Amino acid sequence: MPELDSIRGLAILAVLFYHGLYWKVDLSPFSPFARVVLNTFRLGRLGVSLFFVLSGFLITGLLLDSRDRPDYYWRFYVRRALRILPAYLLTIVVLASLRYAPAAFLVMSLAYLSNLTPLFGVPIAYPILWSLAVEEHFYFLWPVLTRKLGEKGLAVLSILVVCLSPVSRLIGFWNLHGVNNFVFHEYTWNSADGLACGALLAIFLRRYRCSRRSLVLLSVILCLIAAAIWIVGFPSGILTRQTAVGASLQIVPCHFVFVALIVVFLLLGVGKWKFLVHTPVLKVFGDISYGLYLCHLLVFEGVGWLWKIGPFRPLHANALGSLVIRFIVAATLAVLIALLSRRQFENRFLRLKSRLT
Known about the structure:
Elements: H1 2-21, H2 32-40, H3 46-66, H4 72-97, H5 103-110, H6 129-175, H7 188-207, H8 212-233, H9 244-249, H10 252-269, H11 280-287, H12 289-307, H13 319-350, H14 353-356
Helix pairs in contact: 1-3, 1-10, 1-11, 1-12, 1-13, 3-6, 3-7, 3-10, 4-5, 4-12, 4-13, 6-7, 7-10, 8-10, 12-13
């Protein structure tokens, strides 16, 4: 389904723009208009949430379609390992070689506990890895639950997760006495509702053979629910995670919109408008999204360090121009590394899927 590659492409581009043009950027040197523009890239962090919803949809669908196979567990875990582990372990090796992160963080990351290190007094030294830990916890539990519970049981469980994750985030906010340090959002139990929303969509599409009109109506209803949550929550501070309402509910309407987005892309992908979602550029970004996600922040920070020295100093006279040029250079380098990783490294392991499963 190339339209889903396009969604991956949108998600990774959002993350790139967030880390390149907003994250850790001092906005004080910029004009008021430039600050407004750069602040919009803060929304790019939602690319991770889009990845979660898409992953929940795809993985649940794959598991439901293969749950009667005798090699159900072997097939799933071998294929996931071949897709995830090579580039992930290479990233850990690079971080260790550069002494970028403390040994405690890297050791816990090897066990996919990087999002839980703050519970042990270890900071999340390479922020990219937290979301991969959430994904791996999902991969660890979901195959067993899918096979044991079936469609109905899995749907009930997914609804519970969607309802209870905001409660969990609210409890975390209260435990911090109203001071939101954002770390608790990255704990698996506080990030699981995006995956559950995607899972619900996969179950729904398999259980009910809906017409195209019904699916369009579903998308509209989801967007209206999202808008209603934003409108009702606006007076209580839903637009900032520094309030109880925002900390617990801010991401919920985004998940509903992302489910609607997947439905729309699926519909367009099999209709006369499929050229809108079968975009070659987005497909390329979707194809390299995993490697690009792993490496881009390290590349951005490396280029940012080089930018402060040597021949780049004359560019600092124009703050906005310097930021944009630095972003273009860093993003281009990260894309080239991700392309090389996919073609020359990751594909070697992906080709083993057909032999081993």
